[in-house]
Every structure is written in structure tokens, then in C-alpha cells.
Amino acid sequence: MPDPAADGDILLGAEDIVKHFPIKEGIFFKHQVGSVKAVDGVSLQVRRGETLGLVGETGCGKSTLARCIMRLFPLTSGHLTFDGADLSTLSRSGMRPYRRGMQMIFQDPYGSLNSRRRVGSIIGDPLAIHHVASGAERRKRVQGLMEVVGLNPEHYNRFPAEFSGGQRQRIGVARALALHPKLIVCDEPVSALDVSIQAQIINLLEDLQGEFGLTYIFIAHDLAVVQHVSDRVAVMYLGKIVEVADVKDLYSTPHHPYTNALLSASVVADPDKARTRDRIILTGDVPSPINPPSGCRFHTRCPKAQPICSTEEPLLKSGVGDPPGHVTACHFPVAEGEKLASEKATILHAVEGFLAEAPT
Amino acid sequence: MTRFLIRRIVFGLITLWVIITLVFVLYYARPGVDPARELAGRAVTPALLENINKEYGFNLPVIVQYWNYLKRLVPIPGQFNLGTSNVNRLPVTTIIAQAVPIDISLAVGSAILWMVLGISVGVLAARRPRSLWDRGATVFVLTGVSMPTFILGLLLLYVLYYLLTIHGIAIFPKPGSWTPFTQNPLEWAHDLLLPWITLALITAATYSRLTRSSLLETLGEDYIRTARAKGLSERRVVYRHGLRSSLTPIVTQFGIDLATVLGGAIITESIFGLPGLGLTVVQAIEVENLPVVIGIVLVASFFVVAANIVVDALYAVLDPRVRVS
Amino acid sequence: MSLSTVEAIAGDLPPEDPAVKGIQGRTPLQLVVARLRTDRVAIISIVVILLIIILAIAAPLIAGITGHGATDANVDTGTDASGQPLPPGSAGYLLGTDNLGRDILVRIAYGARVSLLVGVLATAIATIVGVVVGLFAGYFGGWLDGILARIMDVVLSFPYVLFAIVLVSVFGSSLPLVILVIAFFSFAAIGRIVRGQALSQREKEYVEAAHSLGAGNLRIMFVDILPNLVAPVIVLATLLIPTAIIFEATLSFLGLGVTPPTPSWGNMLSDAEGVGFQAWWFYIFPMLFLLLTTLAFNLLGDAVRDALDPRAERIFAARRKKAA
Ligand SMILES: Nc1ncnc2c1ncn2[C@@H]1O[C@H](COP(=O)(O)OP(=O)(O)OP(=O)(O)O)[C@@H](O)[C@H]1O
Ligand code: SF4
Ligand SMILES: [Mg+2]
Fold first, then answer.
1. Measuring CA to CA, which residue among C257, C321, C264, C265 is closest to residue C288?
2. C-alpha closest to that of C121 among C191, C67, C178, C39
3. Which ligand is nearest to the CA of A313?
4. Which of A144, A166, B15, C213 has a CA 20 to 30 Å removed from the CA of B247?
5. How confident is the model at residue A245 (pLDDT cuts 50, 70, 90)?
6. A327-328 sheet: strands from edge to edge
7. Is the CB of residue B255 less than 8 Å from the CB of residue B82?
8. Are strands A77-82 and A51-55 parallel, antiparallel or unpaired?
9. Residue C21 pLDDT
């Protein structure tokens, strides 16, 4: 566990967050026959002003974790504190005042904007919902926001369909910014965009962070993007965090075999390390989150797996000589320079699929 | 499958119970209304009122009345009792039993006609979308839904019965003619021809639209294209694959329509003077013959609920997807 | 017939697909207007509907010009020497008179008022109730949806004429009751469609976005989801108007709707039936107007559906080219 005491300024604290989606069956009275363990015991701290990157394969629970943090549904269990307030069990209406402090940017710039409403009213929505401004005042503030994110304020009355993907994502950013939140959760904010546009949006987000002192949780597929924007990075696998470290540590000395596999399969902007790193063979398919493997969830695919891995769950802890804050959940962490598998440049489809989903 | 059916049957029973209860509230337990007086109808006498009060127990607490009312509706011989007509003192069950054959006759003939007509027009339209055939089908459909039943009935009567008859060509019988099937099947069909045509023309429109849109949808689907690519003839493709999967919405609609006619084709019967449940109920309302009205409403509701259950069962057979839902 | 027919006629309702070229950047209304302007059938139907509206509005005027009230039995001029009704074209009686010597033209005009009033009001009520019920069922799901959806199924599968006449016979016929009864049996047609659409809309990301902003359920339903359902609701509402008009005419024909002597097209036909076929003009005019009205609304509904269908852009583009 990272030591929270080490940093005085924790904006968001998540402790053992669990989110299970029940699977129900029945004629008259539905009864639960199982559950999708989308997020299964995640602890995280996000410091004020930092950007925490969150990476992991498709379906590992990143979006679900983001929704847990945003409290878009009740938590199965766990504790969530934001800016000193306990949000874990607040009702929908109880959450409302806190929503001013935390906002979200969504992956799909088409789906996340209501195509039947005008851009002005979409961006002004948070102002209307929280009764911050109305009428001409709201319009003025919305147009100000449009300018900040690089949109033409005269397009106030247009519909989302009249904008390009990148512009639409700017609309989403403006909406998230409207209430001057402290935290913005970005769930793959650029993966639906053309590569050329991605950089623009990333730069915009970085500029805004400086200007408004924002804290980001940045979810992405693209390891290069995460490396670029994040201060720290958390790696997720099947509903659990397997490794957290400062961005430099993680990309230079990844300890978890899974992190190693991800990095070896990806072209990362670390010229020295990446090129020398061998590609790692992962065997087997991603297990189902309905019946996750026992012990270490990665043991079904891990090249280093030992008998203990399938019986005992490894906890997040820092290894000997690690910089503070670098924690790994593995019984047999990968040491620096250790070779994990053969030199053959074969990657199993799991990782390949992961790459395929990243924009090219 | 069985679970699905059990669920639907239970739901159907609940629906029936709700309707039965509503009828009770509406007629027997409405505040400010003397149910005995209402049941007695026009030929009211103090003795009759007392009789009714005793028979129905209207001086008992409402909940007891309700319980007895429910008991009278349990279909066990000797217990089942819909009361007696306040006009001719016949048991309501007898009146209904006399009327139902007419509704069954109406339903059988018109259903065959509207299915054949509706589906063929729909198939014609779907095979050549936006062709002249398709446009013609659209006109047929829109005219069909725009046409009130009583207008079509009156038009048919005027042209085919009145005009022909005054010109000495009396092909069609005069309104009010009715021959039981058992007595003379030919005469039976002859008497029912115009009512059948009326019901069929009005109803067929829906079937054309349903057939056309689900055919177009299925014909666009991959497996149909595969079937075509495999060299199956156009006919085979349309009939074997397309129609089969259009069956589900049609079956649903068919159940509803059939039940409606069985429960009394009110307008058609009124215009053609056929003494089925529909005309009986209209006449009963006119003379304030409440027991008959209530009886027919209950019987018609039963038909609808039963039809819904049968449709659901067929649905589950035709479309395996619903079984798991 | 049951009201599920309306859904069948509405067919596949236009899917919401703002990404389809040609509808970008226009409100549904602008789009529909632009497309309807190229649709000859739609224009004719609108003209017919407008003419009937004018007829309804001008009813007192027509009564004034002819000098005959709608319920006046014109004993002296309205019948011929032997007391028979006058055929159309008779002096002072353009469409003839009925057996009581009443001016059919004036009665038709007043009948138009009843039909339009019932058609529009009942549809408006049914639409509002249907939208609210459908939104609640589809948005909240769960047991509420289970109950509401089945209720709507049942309402739609019931023989509404039978239940309507029973209700009217119990409570006595009056125009407001007729309107309410029609609205009750029609709301489910809209409600079922709205429910289905709300069910799929609530899974959209924009709903989640609204939630994350702090929007309450009501706001999400009515501010966010509702605008996305405008297209199917417009189509269904247009198709419900003629259904309601037929419904009223049917009740009046059976003597359970608008009570005589107040004229309605339905009870005019019922009067006619009491007389017999020899005076054909008793029949032909109410029939003609009734049919014209319902046909015009149905044609318009059909055209609006096409106009709202993004898939139909090719057809409309071709039409525009031809027109240019
Ligand atoms: N509402 C839900 N009901 C049931 N299961 C769900 C629900 N939402 C997500 N899941 C399941 O939870 C798991 C995690 O999904 P999640 O969307 O959080 O993954 P993700 O990491 O964001 O993936 P992606 O990279 O594709 O966005 C998946 O198996 C998914 O099917
Ligand atoms: S705990 Fe064992 S199975 Fe899990 S990652 Fe470490 S070595 Fe592999
Ligand atoms: Mg996701």
C-alpha cells in the first residue's frame, strides 16, 4: 500500500472499492446466480494537482472504476473520500453537491453529447443543474468556456452534429470545466479521435490543468499517451490494481510481470529501455471477471507463475530498494534487467488485441 | 418454455381478476348508486327490487358481496352464474350461448379472408419495394385504416345490397339474415358474406403493413442473401425464409383481432343486424339490461385474455428467443 | 380492431441517427418541413386538413349566411311539398336537408368541429400521458416497468369499442367523457413506443454524462431523453388523430358519443341509417368528410414518418433534384 501519510494532500482516496454487477435469473422473483466482478478491491490515492494514469486491457474494469469514483452507481463495498468528505454511501441526491467538485470526460465524443440539444445548453447544463447562473449570465459564461477550450463562441446555438470529433471533445471538456471542479476523470478522452487531433486535446487538457489547478485521473489504452500525461500510473488487471508507480519508475523498471508484458508489446517513448526490452509471451485468454482465477489473478497467463500464485493473493507492497510509492502486487516481482521469456517476437492475442484497440 | 407460459398464464389470470374487480366496482359498488335498481332495469317493481337484493345480498358488507360475486364467476357447474336478463328473464348464460355461434361464424370467415388478403398484399408490396405494386399496397393500407367500419359496412350495404336489389339483382341477403351453419352451410356463408368482407377489408390493412415491413427487414438480412446466393429461387426465398420470420408479429396481431371479433364485432353486427354478442350488448345498453351487459363484458374480457395467452404460447414456439427472456 | 393497429401502421419508426448525412445541423422540425415541401401527397393532405379546419372555424359563419342553425328543423323551406327532405342543390340548401329539414351543410360544418376537437384533444392527452408513462417505464425499468408495460399491452389488446360503450353507458355520454375514454385507450400506443425508445436511450453515454453533472432523474427524462424521442412521437401522434376521430364517430354512430341534436358526422350517419338508403345524400356527405379527414391525417402521418427517416435521405435528395 502506498503510504498516504507520506503525502499531506490527498484529494481522492479510494479504499478497497468493490463493484459487482449481479447476474439475475428467475420467473417471478429474480434471484442472483452470479456476478461480474468488474472492480474487486481497488485502493488508490490521488494527490491534488497530479495526473494519475490508469491503464489495462479492455474489460479490466477501468471505466467501472471511473464510475465508482464518480459515484454513478452505488458501490458494492469500499470507502471513497473526496476532498475530506466521505462519499461511499451517499444517495443520488446526497451526491449532488459534491458533483461540482468532480467531473468526467467521456470516451465517445458522439455518444456523450446529446445530439438533440444545442451546444450552448449542453455546456450550460452544469450551470443550470447547480443553479449557478441563468439567462444572459449563463450564456456569457458558456461562451467564455467555449473560448477557453478553443471553440468559436458564436457556435453557441449549433447542434453537436455540426462539429468534428475533436471539437466535440472540446465541448465535453468545456462542460466538465464549467463548475471549476477540482478533479476531472478522463475516461479514454482521446482514443476515439484521429491521432493528429489527439495531441491537440492532450495539450488542451495539460494547459487547463496548469491554468485551473486541476487534478486528473486519466484512463487510456495508449501507453505512450499515458506516459506523456501522467505523473503516476496505475496498472489494472481483472478488477484489481497490480502496480502503481511514478511514471518514470514504471516505464523504466516495471516490476509486475503483467506490466512488463504490456510495455514489451507496446512501442513506448523510452528509447533506451523499450528497444532492448524483449517481447513477452502471454499464454491463455483473459479470464472471465465472473469467475476470476484464485490467488493472483494473473497466474493463468503469467510466465513466472509458481504454485503459491494460485493459492495466495499477492498484496500491493513496495520492494526492497524501490522508490517511495512504487508498489507491486506480485509474489515474484521482476527485477531490473531480468528477462521474462524467449526472444521470439510473438505476442499472444490478448496483448495484440489490446494494441489493436489503441488508435493507430 | 413452461416457465414462460406459467408466467403468462398467471399474468392473464391477474388481468382477468383486475377487470372482474373493476366491473364489480363500476356496477355494484359505485358510491351513490343502488345496484339493485340498476339491475332491475326498466320494469322495476318493489318486489323485484327485494328479490334482487336478496339474491345478490346487497345489504351485506361490500367485501362479502365481492366474495360472493367472485364465487359466482368460478367456472364450476351449479355455481357459475351470470344472473338473468331483466327483459325476458332468461339466464344470461343462455343469451350468451345463443349469440356466440354468430361471433364464431363471423370470426372464422373474416379471419381467413383478412389473413389471405392482408398477407398477399404485403408480400406483393415487399417483393418490389417502391414499385407500382407497393404504392398500390400503401393506398390499400391507408384507406383501410382511414375507413371507419360502419362506413365500409354501410357502403357495401348500399352498393351490393340496396342498389343491386332495387335493380332486381338480389344477390345479397337483406340485413338481419342469419342461418346457422348446422342448418344449411351454404345459406350460412351466403348470409355472412358481406359482414365477412367488411371485417376483412378493415382488418387486412394492418396485416399488409406488418407483412411488408418484417419481410423487408428479413429479406435484407444476411441469411436471406446467402439463400439467394445459393441459388434458391426468389419464390423460395420469400416464402421459406422471409415469411417464416414475419410470422411472430402477425400471430400477435391475429390473436388480438380474433379475440376482438369473438367478443362481439359490435359495429359489423349492428349494421348487418346479426344478433351476436356485439349487437346483443348494444341492445342491452339501450334497454338498460345490465345483467346482460355485465355478462358480455366479462365473456369478452375472457376471450381477450385467453387469446393473449395462446398467442404467447405460439410466440414461444415460433421465436425461441422469447423463451429465455 | 384494436389500437395496436396504430403501431403496426407506424411500422419501423425512424431511428435516431444524427450521423447520417443530410440531417446534420438541422432540428428535426426544420428537416421535416424541408422534406415535406417536396412531397406532393403531404402537401395535398395538409391542404385538405386546413380546409376542414377552416370549415370548422367558419361553421357559425356558414350558419349565418344560409340562415339555418345546425339544429334548426326548417319546417317551411327544408322539406318539399310532401314533407320529403330536399336533395343537394336545392335552393338555399347546397347539400340538401335531412328528414327533419335540417341543413346538411351546416351540420357537416359543426360536425367538423366535433371531429377535430375530439381528434386533437384526445390525441394531445394520450400523447402527454403516453410520453410520461413510457418514459417512467423505460427509464426506471425494474418492477415499475414490468407493471406499466404489461398494463399497456393489455390496454392495447382490449376491444376498445366494447369498453368505451360500457363506460359511456355507465357515466352518461358527454363530450369530455368521450375524449377521456378515447385518450385512455390510445395512450398505450404512444407509451409502448416511448418506453422502448427510452429503454435504449437510457443506456446512451449522454445520459451518464448528465448524471455525472448532477442532473436528477426527472431532468434526465424530460430534458435529455425526451428531445430524442420527438420523431417517433410526432409520427404516432399524427396517426392517432384519425384513430380518435374514427373512435368518436363510431361512438356517436352507436348513439353513445355526441348526443343529438348536436351534430357530429357519426350521429348524422346514425340518423341516416334510421331513414334508409333512398335519401343517399344523408349518407354520402358525412361519409365523404369523415373519410377525407381520416385519410388526410393518415397520409400526412405516413409522409412525416418518411420525412423523419434519415435512411430516406436518398429519396428526398433525388426528389429535390427533380424539382430543381
Ligand atoms: N452495467 C454493467 N453490467 C454488467 N456488467 C458490466 C457493466 N458494466 C461493465 N460491466 C462488465 O465489467 C467489466 C469491466 O468493464 P469496464 O467497462 O469497466 O472495462 P474497461 O476496462 O473500461 O474496458 P474498455 O477498455 O473496453 O473501456 C466487463 O467485463 C464488463 O462487461
Ligand atoms: S504473483 Fe505469481 S502469477 Fe501473479 S504476477 Fe506474480 S508471479 Fe505472476
Ligand atoms: Mg472503458
1. C265
2. C178
3. 2
4. B15
5. very high
6. A102-105, A183-187, A215-219, A51-55, A232-237, A240-246, A327-328
7. no
8. unpaired
9. 41
Q: Cβ(B79)–Cβ(B93) under 8 Å?
A: no
Give the count of domains, chain A: 1
Task: Name the closest residue on chain B to residue A28, using Cα atoms.
Answer: B7
SS3 at position A17: strand
Interval A227-240 mean pLDDT: 94
Is the pLDDT score of A283 beyond 90? no
pLDDT over threshold 60, residue A275: no
Q: Measuring from each residue's beta carbon to the nearest atom of ligand 1, which residues come in under 6 Å?
A: A 21, 36, 38, 56, 58-64, 289
In a domain, A145, yes or no: no
Chain B residues within 8 A of C156 when measuring between CB atoms: 256
Structural domain containing residue A42:
10-101+181-357
C169 touches chain B (CB under 8 A): yes
Domains and CATH numbers, chain C: 41-88+115-316 (1.10.3720.10)
Query: Chain A residues with CB inside 8 Å of C228's CB?
Result: 114-116
Summarised one tens digit per residue, pLDDT across range C209-247 is 999 999 999 999 999 999 888 888 888 898 899 999 999
* More confident: B125 or C219: C219
Q: Is C254 on the interface with B (CB under 8 A)?
A: yes
Look at ligand 1, atom 17, and give the residue with the nearest C-alpha: A63
Whose alpha carbon is nearest atom 12 of ligand 1?
A: A38
List the single residue in B with minimal CA-CA distance to C255.
Answer: B286
Task: Read off the pLDDT of residues C7-26 as tens digits, 9 standing for 90 and up.
Answer: 666 665 555 544 444 444 55
Cell (9 digits) for C245 = 376521430
Coil/strand/helix, residue B149 = helix
DSSP of C7-58: HHHH-SPPP--TTSTTSTTS-HHHHHHHHHTT-HHHHHHHHHHHHHHHHHHT
Does residue A138 belong to any structural domain of this protein? Answer: no
**Which fold is adopted by the domain B92-324?**
MetI-like fold (1.10.3720)
Q: pLDDT for A108-127, tens place per residue?
A: 888 899 988 999 999 999 99
Q: Where along chain B do its domains lie? A: 2-73, 92-324
What is the pTM assigned to this prediction?
0.84
Considering the domain boundaries, does residue A139 fall inside one? no
- Chains sharing 3 or more CB pairs under 8 A with chain C: A, B
B156 CB burial (10 A radius; 0-12, 13-18, 19+): buried
User: What is the pLDDT averaged over residues B28-35?
Assistant: 80
CATH number for the domain spanning A275: value is 3.40.50.300
Q: What angle do CA C153, C155, C160 make, to 5 degrees?
A: 140
Q: Closest Cα of chain A to B18: distance in Å?
A: 19
Closest CA to C284 of B145, B156, B155: B155
pLDDT tens sequence across C308-320: 766 555 556 666 6
Q: What pLDDT, on the 0 to 100 scale, is given for residue A309?
A: 92
Per CB-CB distance under 8 Å, the chain A contacts of B8 are none
Q: Which atom of ligand 1 is nearest to the CA of A107?
A: 27
CA distance B113 to C291: 23
Q: What pLDDT is attached to residue C1?
A: 45
Name the residue with the closest Cα to ligand 1, atom 2: A21
User: For all residues of chain C together, what is the average pLDDT?
Assistant: 82
**Cβ–Cβ gap C19/A110 under 8 Å:** yes
Cα-based angle A356, A330, A347 (whole degrees, multiple of 5): 25
Chain segment C159-177, per-residue pLDDT in tens: 888 888 888 888 888 889 9
CA–CA min distance A27, chain B (Å): 7
Residue A127 included in any domain: no
CB-based burial, A19-38: b 16+ in 10 Å, e otherwise: bbbeeeeeeeeeeeeebbbb
- Average model confidence (pLDDT) for chain A? 85
